[in-house]
Amino acid sequence: MKNRPPTLTVPLAQDLHFGVTERSNRLINYFLGGYFLLGLFLAPFYGTWLIAVGVGGLSLIAYYLVKVALPDSCWYQYVLSVVLGIFMAQFIYQMHGMFEMHFFAFIGSALLITYQNWKLQLPLLLFVLLHYTLFNYLQDMDMLSQPSNLHLQTFTAHILLTGVICFICGLCAFQLNKYHQIQLIQTEQMTLLQDAARLTIVREKNAEALEERNMILESIGDAFFALDKDWAVSYWNRTAEKILQKTKQEMLGRNLWDAFPTAVNSVSYRQYHQATNTGLAVHFEDYFALLDCWYEVSAFPSPAGLSVYFKDISERKQSISDLKESEQRYSDVFHFSPLPMWVVNLESLAFMDVNEATIEHYGYTREEFLTMNLRDIRPESGIASMQRALDQGDSEPDAIAHRQMVHRKKNGELMNMEIQLAPFRFKGVKTSIVIATDMTERLRYTKAIEQQNEKLLAISWMQSHVIRAPLARIMGLIPMFIDPKTTIKEKQDIGEYLVLSTNEMNNVIQQITDATGSVPES
Protein backbone atom coordinates (compact mmCIF):
# COMPACT_ATOMS: atom_id res chain seq x y z
CA MET A 1 0.00 0.00 0.00
CA LYS A 2 1.44 3.32 -1.04
CA ASN A 3 1.87 6.11 1.46
CA ARG A 4 -0.40 9.07 0.88
CA PRO A 5 1.46 12.33 0.24
CA PRO A 6 1.32 14.82 3.09
CA THR A 7 -1.26 17.55 2.83
CA LEU A 8 -1.64 20.94 4.41
CA THR A 9 -3.88 21.37 7.42
CA VAL A 10 -6.95 23.52 6.81
CA PRO A 11 -5.78 26.57 8.82
CA LEU A 12 -2.37 26.55 7.16
CA ALA A 13 -3.92 26.18 3.67
CA GLN A 14 -6.25 29.07 4.39
CA ASP A 15 -3.37 31.20 5.57
CA LEU A 16 -1.41 30.31 2.43
CA HIS A 17 -4.31 31.20 0.12
CA PHE A 18 -5.04 34.44 1.97
CA GLY A 19 -1.41 35.58 1.93
CA VAL A 20 -0.91 34.86 -1.77
CA THR A 21 -4.22 36.52 -2.69
CA GLU A 22 -3.51 39.66 -0.68
CA ARG A 23 -0.08 40.15 -2.22
CA SER A 24 -1.43 39.57 -5.74
CA ASN A 25 -4.35 41.95 -5.21
CA ARG A 26 -2.02 44.76 -4.17
CA LEU A 27 0.14 44.15 -7.25
CA ILE A 28 -2.88 44.06 -9.61
CA ASN A 29 -4.20 47.35 -8.20
CA TYR A 30 -1.04 49.08 -9.38
CA PHE A 31 -1.13 47.46 -12.83
CA LEU A 32 -4.83 48.20 -13.44
CA GLY A 33 -4.22 51.83 -12.55
CA GLY A 34 -1.24 51.83 -14.92
CA TYR A 35 -3.32 50.24 -17.72
CA PHE A 36 -6.02 52.90 -17.34
CA LEU A 37 -3.45 55.70 -17.41
CA LEU A 38 -1.77 54.11 -20.46
CA GLY A 39 -5.11 54.18 -22.27
CA LEU A 40 -5.40 57.91 -21.54
CA PHE A 41 -1.82 58.37 -22.75
CA LEU A 42 -2.61 56.65 -26.09
CA ALA A 43 -5.90 58.51 -26.63
CA PRO A 44 -4.40 61.69 -28.23
CA PHE A 45 -2.67 59.77 -31.05
CA TYR A 46 -5.91 58.81 -32.90
CA GLY A 47 -8.52 60.64 -30.84
CA THR A 48 -9.72 57.60 -28.90
CA TRP A 49 -10.68 59.40 -25.69
CA LEU A 50 -14.12 57.79 -25.54
CA ILE A 51 -12.61 54.31 -25.84
CA ALA A 52 -9.91 55.07 -23.24
CA VAL A 53 -12.34 56.45 -20.67
CA GLY A 54 -15.38 54.32 -21.48
CA VAL A 55 -13.89 50.86 -22.04
CA GLY A 56 -11.09 51.28 -19.49
CA GLY A 57 -13.38 52.77 -16.86
CA LEU A 58 -16.12 50.13 -17.33
CA SER A 59 -13.52 47.36 -17.09
CA LEU A 60 -12.23 48.69 -13.76
CA ILE A 61 -15.77 49.15 -12.47
CA ALA A 62 -16.69 45.59 -13.42
CA TYR A 63 -13.60 44.17 -11.69
CA TYR A 64 -13.99 46.08 -8.43
CA LEU A 65 -17.78 45.57 -8.29
CA VAL A 66 -17.37 41.79 -8.45
CA LYS A 67 -14.52 41.94 -5.92
CA VAL A 68 -16.61 43.91 -3.44
CA ALA A 69 -19.82 41.95 -4.07
CA LEU A 70 -18.11 38.56 -3.65
CA PRO A 71 -15.29 39.16 -1.12
CA ASP A 72 -14.99 35.47 -0.13
CA SER A 73 -15.04 34.20 -3.72
CA CYS A 74 -12.32 33.96 -6.35
CA TRP A 75 -14.70 34.92 -9.21
CA TYR A 76 -13.24 38.42 -9.32
CA GLN A 77 -9.94 36.83 -10.38
CA TYR A 78 -11.59 35.31 -13.44
CA VAL A 79 -13.16 38.69 -14.16
CA LEU A 80 -9.65 40.15 -13.84
CA SER A 81 -8.39 37.69 -16.47
CA VAL A 82 -11.06 38.94 -18.92
CA VAL A 83 -10.37 42.59 -18.00
CA LEU A 84 -6.68 42.17 -18.87
CA GLY A 85 -7.74 40.83 -22.26
CA ILE A 86 -10.13 43.77 -22.74
CA PHE A 87 -7.29 46.23 -22.04
CA MET A 88 -5.16 44.45 -24.65
CA ALA A 89 -7.98 44.79 -27.21
CA GLN A 90 -8.45 48.45 -26.21
CA PHE A 91 -4.76 49.25 -26.77
CA ILE A 92 -4.77 47.45 -30.15
CA TYR A 93 -7.80 49.44 -31.25
CA GLN A 94 -6.39 52.74 -29.93
CA MET A 95 -3.14 52.21 -31.89
CA HIS A 96 -4.93 50.97 -35.08
CA GLY A 97 -3.76 47.38 -34.84
CA MET A 98 -0.13 48.05 -33.85
CA PHE A 99 1.57 44.65 -33.54
CA GLU A 100 3.32 45.50 -30.28
CA MET A 101 -0.01 46.01 -28.47
CA HIS A 102 -0.61 42.22 -28.67
CA PHE A 103 2.14 41.76 -26.07
CA PHE A 104 -0.19 43.13 -23.35
CA ALA A 105 -1.91 39.73 -23.50
CA PHE A 106 1.41 38.13 -22.53
CA ILE A 107 1.90 40.70 -19.74
CA GLY A 108 -1.55 39.93 -18.38
CA SER A 109 -0.86 36.20 -18.53
CA ALA A 110 2.36 36.71 -16.56
CA LEU A 111 0.56 38.82 -13.96
CA LEU A 112 -1.98 36.06 -13.34
CA ILE A 113 0.86 33.73 -12.27
CA THR A 114 1.00 35.58 -8.93
CA TYR A 115 -2.35 34.04 -7.92
CA GLN A 116 -0.83 30.56 -8.32
CA ASN A 117 -4.01 29.35 -10.06
CA TRP A 118 -3.46 27.96 -13.58
CA LYS A 119 -7.19 28.11 -14.36
CA LEU A 120 -7.06 31.92 -14.52
CA GLN A 121 -5.21 31.59 -17.85
CA LEU A 122 -8.28 30.10 -19.53
CA PRO A 123 -10.56 33.22 -19.58
CA LEU A 124 -7.70 35.32 -20.96
CA LEU A 125 -6.87 32.73 -23.64
CA LEU A 126 -10.52 32.41 -24.69
CA PHE A 127 -10.91 36.18 -24.85
CA VAL A 128 -7.76 36.57 -26.98
CA LEU A 129 -8.96 33.78 -29.30
CA LEU A 130 -12.39 35.41 -29.57
CA HIS A 131 -10.83 38.81 -30.15
CA TYR A 132 -8.45 37.61 -32.87
CA THR A 133 -11.27 35.68 -34.57
CA LEU A 134 -13.70 38.55 -34.47
CA PHE A 135 -11.01 41.05 -35.48
CA ASN A 136 -9.96 38.93 -38.45
CA TYR A 137 -13.56 38.37 -39.49
CA LEU A 138 -14.40 42.07 -39.40
CA GLN A 139 -11.30 42.86 -41.44
CA ASP A 140 -12.20 40.25 -44.04
CA MET A 141 -15.68 41.72 -44.29
CA ASP A 142 -14.17 45.22 -44.68
CA MET A 143 -16.17 46.35 -41.67
CA LEU A 144 -13.20 48.02 -39.96
CA SER A 145 -11.90 51.42 -40.98
CA GLN A 146 -8.41 50.50 -39.66
CA PRO A 147 -5.88 49.08 -42.11
CA SER A 148 -5.69 45.28 -42.27
CA ASN A 149 -2.44 44.04 -40.74
CA LEU A 150 -3.59 40.54 -39.71
CA HIS A 151 -3.48 37.73 -42.33
CA LEU A 152 -4.38 34.11 -41.79
CA GLN A 153 -0.84 32.99 -41.15
CA THR A 154 -0.30 35.87 -38.75
CA PHE A 155 -3.61 35.09 -37.07
CA THR A 156 -2.66 31.45 -36.65
CA ALA A 157 0.77 32.36 -35.29
CA HIS A 158 -0.75 34.77 -32.80
CA ILE A 159 -3.23 32.18 -31.58
CA LEU A 160 -0.55 29.51 -31.20
CA LEU A 161 1.87 31.92 -29.55
CA THR A 162 -0.78 33.11 -27.14
CA GLY A 163 -1.73 29.53 -26.34
CA VAL A 164 1.87 28.60 -25.67
CA ILE A 165 2.39 31.66 -23.45
CA CYS A 166 -0.80 30.97 -21.49
CA PHE A 167 0.19 27.30 -21.14
CA ILE A 168 3.64 28.22 -19.86
CA CYS A 169 2.23 30.82 -17.43
CA GLY A 170 -0.42 28.34 -16.25
CA LEU A 171 2.25 25.71 -15.75
CA CYS A 172 4.35 28.20 -13.78
CA ALA A 173 1.37 29.08 -11.62
CA PHE A 174 0.65 25.39 -11.02
CA GLN A 175 4.26 24.54 -10.19
CA LEU A 176 4.65 27.64 -7.99
CA ASN A 177 1.56 26.68 -6.02
CA LYS A 178 2.75 23.08 -5.76
CA TYR A 179 6.24 23.96 -4.55
CA HIS A 180 4.83 26.57 -2.19
CA GLN A 181 2.54 23.94 -0.65
CA ILE A 182 5.42 21.48 -0.37
CA GLN A 183 7.53 24.10 1.34
CA LEU A 184 4.74 24.93 3.78
CA ILE A 185 4.10 21.22 4.43
CA GLN A 186 7.77 20.78 5.24
CA THR A 187 7.62 23.84 7.48
CA GLU A 188 4.54 22.46 9.24
CA GLN A 189 6.16 19.06 9.68
CA MET A 190 9.30 20.73 11.00
CA THR A 191 7.14 22.70 13.43
CA LEU A 192 5.47 19.49 14.61
CA LEU A 193 8.87 17.85 15.06
CA GLN A 194 10.10 20.89 16.98
CA ASP A 195 6.97 20.79 19.17
CA ALA A 196 7.57 17.11 19.85
CA ALA A 197 11.21 17.81 20.65
CA ARG A 198 10.23 20.66 22.96
CA LEU A 199 7.68 18.42 24.67
CA THR A 200 10.36 15.80 25.22
CA ILE A 201 12.72 18.45 26.57
CA VAL A 202 9.99 19.76 28.87
CA ARG A 203 9.33 16.27 30.21
CA GLU A 204 13.04 15.73 30.80
CA LYS A 205 13.30 19.11 32.49
CA ASN A 206 10.27 18.31 34.66
CA ALA A 207 11.91 15.07 35.73
CA GLU A 208 15.16 16.91 36.43
CA ALA A 209 13.23 19.64 38.29
CA LEU A 210 11.50 17.00 40.42
CA GLU A 211 14.83 15.41 41.25
CA GLU A 212 16.37 18.81 41.89
CA ARG A 213 13.42 19.78 44.10
CA ASN A 214 13.89 16.68 46.21
CA MET A 215 17.59 17.42 46.45
CA ILE A 216 16.90 21.01 47.48
CA LEU A 217 14.30 19.99 50.04
CA GLU A 218 16.81 17.58 51.54
CA SER A 219 19.63 20.10 51.60
CA ILE A 220 17.87 23.28 52.78
CA GLY A 221 18.44 24.43 56.31
CA ASP A 222 14.70 24.62 57.00
CA ALA A 223 12.71 21.57 57.97
CA PHE A 224 10.03 20.65 55.43
CA PHE A 225 7.13 18.25 55.21
CA ALA A 226 4.15 17.90 52.88
CA LEU A 227 0.63 16.77 53.71
CA ASP A 228 -2.18 15.51 51.49
CA LYS A 229 -5.84 16.45 51.85
CA ASP A 230 -6.29 13.86 54.62
CA TRP A 231 -3.36 15.23 56.67
CA ALA A 232 -1.22 12.21 55.76
CA VAL A 233 2.50 12.94 55.43
CA SER A 234 3.71 12.65 51.79
CA TYR A 235 7.20 14.09 52.28
CA TRP A 236 9.49 14.48 55.28
CA ASN A 237 13.05 15.81 54.84
CA ARG A 238 16.15 15.12 56.92
CA THR A 239 15.97 18.43 58.81
CA ALA A 240 12.40 17.60 59.88
CA GLU A 241 13.69 14.24 61.13
CA LYS A 242 16.34 16.00 63.20
CA ILE A 243 14.16 18.76 64.65
CA LEU A 244 10.98 16.76 65.35
CA GLN A 245 12.86 13.54 66.19
CA LYS A 246 10.75 11.43 63.85
CA THR A 247 12.24 9.43 60.96
CA LYS A 248 10.94 9.53 57.40
CA GLN A 249 9.99 5.84 57.61
CA GLU A 250 7.87 6.57 60.66
CA MET A 251 6.07 9.55 59.13
CA LEU A 252 5.42 8.78 55.44
CA GLY A 253 1.74 7.91 54.97
CA ARG A 254 0.93 8.59 58.62
CA ASN A 255 -1.62 11.14 59.83
CA LEU A 256 0.20 14.15 61.29
CA TRP A 257 -2.12 14.53 64.26
CA ASP A 258 -1.83 10.82 65.11
CA ALA A 259 1.95 11.22 65.20
CA PHE A 260 1.73 14.40 67.37
CA PRO A 261 -1.50 14.16 69.38
CA THR A 262 -0.41 16.86 71.82
CA ALA A 263 -0.35 19.38 68.94
CA VAL A 264 -4.12 19.09 68.41
CA ASN A 265 -5.80 22.47 69.13
CA SER A 266 -2.38 24.13 69.24
CA VAL A 267 -1.49 27.29 67.31
CA SER A 268 -0.07 25.14 64.50
CA TYR A 269 -3.24 23.04 64.35
CA ARG A 270 -5.46 26.10 64.00
CA GLN A 271 -3.15 27.82 61.49
CA TYR A 272 -2.87 24.72 59.27
CA HIS A 273 -6.65 24.37 59.16
CA GLN A 274 -7.01 28.07 58.42
CA ALA A 275 -4.61 27.77 55.47
CA THR A 276 -6.45 24.78 53.96
CA ASN A 277 -9.88 26.41 54.49
CA THR A 278 -8.97 29.83 53.03
CA GLY A 279 -6.41 28.79 50.44
CA LEU A 280 -4.03 31.46 51.78
CA ALA A 281 -0.50 30.98 53.10
CA VAL A 282 0.10 31.49 56.83
CA HIS A 283 3.23 32.52 58.72
CA PHE A 284 3.43 32.22 62.50
CA GLU A 285 5.52 31.20 65.53
CA ASP A 286 4.59 28.36 67.87
CA TYR A 287 5.98 26.82 71.03
CA PHE A 288 6.15 23.02 71.09
CA ALA A 289 6.09 22.05 74.75
CA LEU A 290 7.00 18.40 74.12
CA LEU A 291 10.45 19.44 72.82
CA ASP A 292 10.62 22.77 74.72
CA CYS A 293 11.36 24.65 71.48
CA TRP A 294 10.06 27.63 69.54
CA TYR A 295 9.45 27.25 65.80
CA GLU A 296 8.91 29.71 62.97
CA VAL A 297 6.43 28.14 60.55
CA SER A 298 5.27 28.95 56.99
CA ALA A 299 2.46 26.86 55.51
CA PHE A 300 1.41 27.03 51.84
CA PRO A 301 -1.86 25.37 50.73
CA SER A 302 -2.27 23.80 47.28
CA PRO A 303 -4.80 21.55 45.52
CA ALA A 304 -2.69 18.57 46.58
CA GLY A 305 -2.58 19.50 50.26
CA LEU A 306 -0.26 21.58 52.44
CA SER A 307 3.49 22.33 52.27
CA VAL A 308 5.09 23.33 55.56
CA TYR A 309 8.49 24.95 56.16
CA PHE A 310 9.70 25.50 59.71
CA LYS A 311 12.89 26.08 61.69
CA ASP A 312 13.96 26.13 65.31
CA ILE A 313 14.13 29.73 66.58
CA SER A 314 14.68 29.00 70.25
CA GLU A 315 18.10 30.69 70.23
CA ARG A 316 16.67 33.73 68.47
CA LYS A 317 13.86 33.94 71.00
CA GLN A 318 16.43 33.88 73.79
CA SER A 319 18.47 36.55 72.01
CA ILE A 320 15.38 38.74 71.68
CA SER A 321 14.67 38.31 75.38
CA ASP A 322 18.26 39.26 76.23
CA LEU A 323 18.05 42.21 73.87
CA LYS A 324 14.89 43.48 75.56
CA GLU A 325 16.65 43.33 78.92
CA SER A 326 19.61 45.20 77.44
CA GLU A 327 17.29 47.82 75.98
CA GLN A 328 15.67 48.26 79.38
CA ARG A 329 19.06 48.81 80.98
CA TYR A 330 19.92 51.33 78.27
CA SER A 331 16.60 53.07 78.83
CA ASP A 332 17.27 53.36 82.57
CA VAL A 333 20.77 54.77 82.01
CA PHE A 334 19.44 57.17 79.40
CA HIS A 335 16.38 58.52 81.18
CA PHE A 336 17.89 58.76 84.67
CA SER A 337 21.15 60.46 83.63
CA PRO A 338 21.72 63.84 85.37
CA LEU A 339 23.18 65.25 82.14
CA PRO A 340 20.94 66.22 79.19
CA MET A 341 20.87 63.39 76.62
CA TRP A 342 18.94 62.90 73.41
CA VAL A 343 18.80 60.74 70.28
CA VAL A 344 18.69 62.55 66.94
CA ASN A 345 17.96 61.28 63.43
CA LEU A 346 21.08 62.03 61.37
CA GLU A 347 19.07 62.46 58.14
CA SER A 348 16.19 64.70 59.25
CA LEU A 349 17.93 66.04 62.45
CA ALA A 350 14.66 65.35 64.30
CA PHE A 351 14.66 64.44 68.00
CA MET A 352 13.71 60.78 68.45
CA ASP A 353 14.02 60.63 72.24
CA VAL A 354 15.06 62.93 75.10
CA ASN A 355 15.70 62.28 78.79
CA GLU A 356 14.28 64.12 81.80
CA ALA A 357 17.44 66.20 82.28
CA THR A 358 17.07 67.60 78.75
CA ILE A 359 13.41 68.49 79.36
CA GLU A 360 14.28 70.24 82.64
CA HIS A 361 17.34 72.05 81.26
CA TYR A 362 15.84 73.36 78.01
CA GLY A 363 12.30 74.03 79.20
CA TYR A 364 10.44 72.13 76.44
CA THR A 365 8.06 69.22 77.10
CA ARG A 366 8.75 65.77 75.67
CA GLU A 367 5.91 66.17 73.16
CA GLU A 368 7.40 69.49 71.98
CA PHE A 369 10.86 67.95 71.59
CA LEU A 370 9.50 65.09 69.46
CA THR A 371 8.12 67.64 66.97
CA MET A 372 11.40 69.62 66.82
CA ASN A 373 14.82 69.20 65.23
CA LEU A 374 18.33 70.43 66.09
CA ARG A 375 17.85 73.74 64.27
CA ASP A 376 15.08 74.67 66.72
CA ILE A 377 17.51 74.83 69.68
CA ARG A 378 20.17 76.82 67.83
CA PRO A 379 20.27 80.59 67.40
CA GLU A 380 20.13 81.86 63.83
CA SER A 381 23.83 82.77 63.97
CA GLY A 382 24.76 79.17 64.85
CA ILE A 383 23.00 77.35 61.99
CA ALA A 384 25.97 77.66 59.61
CA SER A 385 28.46 76.32 62.18
CA MET A 386 26.09 73.44 62.95
CA GLN A 387 25.93 72.55 59.25
CA ARG A 388 29.72 72.54 59.04
CA ALA A 389 29.87 70.20 62.01
CA LEU A 390 27.33 67.88 60.35
CA ASP A 391 29.32 67.87 57.13
CA GLN A 392 32.44 66.96 59.08
CA GLY A 393 30.49 64.16 60.73
CA ASP A 394 29.48 62.80 57.31
CA SER A 395 33.15 62.42 56.39
CA GLU A 396 33.77 60.45 59.63
CA PRO A 397 30.46 58.63 60.19
CA ASP A 398 31.69 56.19 62.85
CA ALA A 399 33.81 58.59 64.95
CA ILE A 400 32.85 59.90 68.40
CA ALA A 401 32.87 63.69 68.14
CA HIS A 402 33.24 66.56 70.66
CA ARG A 403 31.80 69.97 69.82
CA GLN A 404 31.36 73.38 71.46
CA MET A 405 27.98 74.85 70.50
CA VAL A 406 25.58 77.59 71.54
CA HIS A 407 22.06 76.37 72.33
CA ARG A 408 18.89 78.28 73.08
CA LYS A 409 16.37 77.47 75.81
CA LYS A 410 12.63 77.77 75.32
CA ASN A 411 12.72 81.19 77.10
CA GLY A 412 15.34 82.43 74.63
CA GLU A 413 18.31 82.23 77.00
CA LEU A 414 21.53 81.17 75.28
CA MET A 415 23.80 78.49 76.69
CA ASN A 416 27.33 77.38 75.87
CA MET A 417 27.14 73.58 75.59
CA GLU A 418 29.85 70.96 75.27
CA ILE A 419 28.47 68.16 73.04
CA GLN A 420 29.61 64.55 72.73
CA LEU A 421 28.12 62.57 69.83
CA ALA A 422 28.30 58.81 69.24
CA PRO A 423 26.66 57.25 66.15
CA PHE A 424 24.45 54.16 66.52
CA ARG A 425 21.25 52.63 65.12
CA PHE A 426 18.06 53.38 67.04
CA LYS A 427 14.86 51.54 66.02
CA GLY A 428 16.48 50.67 62.70
CA VAL A 429 17.36 54.30 61.87
CA LYS A 430 20.84 55.83 61.55
CA THR A 431 21.05 58.12 64.57
CA SER A 432 23.44 59.68 67.04
CA ILE A 433 23.19 59.74 70.82
CA VAL A 434 24.19 63.11 72.31
CA ILE A 435 25.39 64.00 75.81
CA ALA A 436 25.33 67.74 76.57
CA THR A 437 27.17 69.58 79.35
CA ASP A 438 26.26 73.20 80.16
CA MET A 439 29.52 75.16 80.13
CA THR A 440 27.93 78.62 80.47
CA GLU A 441 28.95 79.34 84.11
CA ARG A 442 32.36 77.79 83.67
CA LEU A 443 33.02 79.89 80.60
CA ARG A 444 31.76 83.01 82.44
CA TYR A 445 34.27 82.48 85.27
CA THR A 446 37.00 81.61 82.81
CA LYS A 447 36.32 84.84 80.95
CA ALA A 448 36.42 86.82 84.21
CA ILE A 449 39.76 85.27 85.12
CA GLU A 450 41.11 86.09 81.69
CA GLN A 451 39.98 89.71 82.10
CA GLN A 452 41.68 89.89 85.55
CA ASN A 453 44.87 88.48 84.08
CA GLU A 454 44.79 91.10 81.35
CA LYS A 455 44.56 93.84 84.00
CA LEU A 456 47.39 92.34 86.00
CA LEU A 457 49.49 92.30 82.87
CA ALA A 458 48.66 95.98 82.35
CA ILE A 459 49.64 96.78 85.96
CA SER A 460 52.88 94.86 85.54
CA TRP A 461 53.62 96.82 82.41
CA MET A 462 52.90 100.16 84.20
CA GLN A 463 55.12 99.13 87.10
CA SER A 464 57.96 98.17 84.81
CA HIS A 465 57.71 101.14 82.44
CA VAL A 466 55.47 104.03 83.50
CA ILE A 467 56.47 104.24 87.24
CA ARG A 468 60.14 103.67 86.50
CA ALA A 469 60.50 107.00 84.59
CA PRO A 470 59.37 109.49 87.37
CA LEU A 471 61.07 107.33 90.03
CA ALA A 472 64.37 107.50 88.13
CA ARG A 473 64.07 111.28 87.84
CA ILE A 474 63.39 111.67 91.61
CA MET A 475 66.34 109.42 92.46
CA GLY A 476 68.56 111.50 90.16
CA LEU A 477 67.35 114.93 91.49
CA ILE A 478 67.62 114.20 95.24
CA PRO A 479 71.45 113.90 95.28
CA MET A 480 71.67 117.18 93.36
CA PHE A 481 69.22 118.84 95.81
CA ILE A 482 71.26 117.87 98.89
CA ASP A 483 74.58 118.73 97.29
CA PRO A 484 76.08 121.84 99.21
CA LYS A 485 77.40 123.19 96.00
CA THR A 486 73.86 123.53 94.58
CA THR A 487 72.67 127.11 94.60
CA ILE A 488 69.34 128.28 95.95
CA LYS A 489 68.09 129.00 92.45
CA GLU A 490 69.08 125.52 91.30
CA LYS A 491 67.41 123.96 94.35
CA GLN A 492 64.20 125.81 93.52
CA ASP A 493 64.28 124.39 89.99
CA ILE A 494 65.10 120.93 91.31
CA GLY A 495 62.21 121.19 93.79
CA GLU A 496 59.78 122.00 90.97
CA TYR A 497 61.01 118.94 89.00
CA LEU A 498 60.61 116.81 92.14
CA VAL A 499 57.02 118.02 92.57
CA LEU A 500 56.23 117.22 88.90
CA SER A 501 57.75 113.71 89.12
CA THR A 502 55.91 113.08 92.42
CA ASN A 503 52.56 114.11 90.87
CA GLU A 504 53.24 111.94 87.82
CA MET A 505 53.98 108.97 90.08
CA ASN A 506 50.82 109.66 92.07
CA ASN A 507 48.71 109.59 88.88
CA VAL A 508 50.25 106.25 87.86
CA ILE A 509 49.57 104.79 91.29
CA GLN A 510 45.94 105.99 91.04
CA GLN A 511 45.60 104.23 87.67
CA ILE A 512 46.96 101.02 89.17
CA THR A 513 44.49 101.34 92.06
CA ASP A 514 41.60 101.76 89.60
CA ALA A 515 42.77 98.75 87.53
CA THR A 516 42.90 96.50 90.58
CA GLY A 517 39.20 97.05 91.32
CA SER A 518 36.68 94.14 91.29
CA VAL A 519 36.15 92.25 88.01
CA PRO A 520 32.76 93.22 86.50
CA GLU A 521 30.19 90.43 86.11
CA SER A 522 29.62 89.33 82.52
Q: Helix fraction?
A: 55-70%
- Number of helical regions: 17
Number of domains: 4
What is the residue-mean pLDDT, rounded to a whole number?
80
Oligomer: single chain
Report the structural category.
alpha+beta
User: What's the arrangement of strands in the largest beta sheet?
Assistant: 2-1-5-4-3
The biggest sheet amounts to: 5 strands, antiparallel
Q: How many strands appear in the DSSP assignment?
A: 10
Strand content: 5-15%
How do the SSEs run, as a string of H and E? HHHHHHEEHHHHEEEHEEHHHEEEHHH
Low-confidence segments, given as residue ranges, are none
Tell me, briefly, the overall form. elongated
Q: End-to-end distance, in Å? A: 125 Å
Radius of gyration: 58 Å
Write up this protein:
The chain is of the alpha+beta class. It has 4 domains: 10-189, no CATH class; 220-312, 2-Layer Sandwich (Beta-Lactamase); 335-438, PAS domain (Beta-Lactamase), CATH 3.30.450.20; 451-515. Helices cover 61% and strands 14% of the residues. It has helices spanning 10-46, 49-69, 75-94, 103-111, 121-140, 152-219, 238-244, 248-251, 256-259, 267-278, 314-335, 356-362, 366-369, 383-395, 440-466, 468-482, 488-515; strands at residues 223-227, 233-236, 282-288, 293-302, 305-312, 341-345, 351-354, 401-408, 414-426, 429-438. The strands form 2 sheets. The chain has a 5-stranded antiparallel beta sheet, sandwiched between helices. A 5-stranded antiparallel beta sheet has the order 7-6-10-9-8, sandwiched between helices. Helix 1 (10-46) runs parallel beside helix 3, helix 2 (49-69) packs antiparallel against helix 3 and helix 15 runs antiparallel to helix 17. It is elongated. It starts with 9 loop residues before the first helix and ends in a 7-residue tail after the last helix. The model has no long low-confidence stretch (mean pLDDT 80).
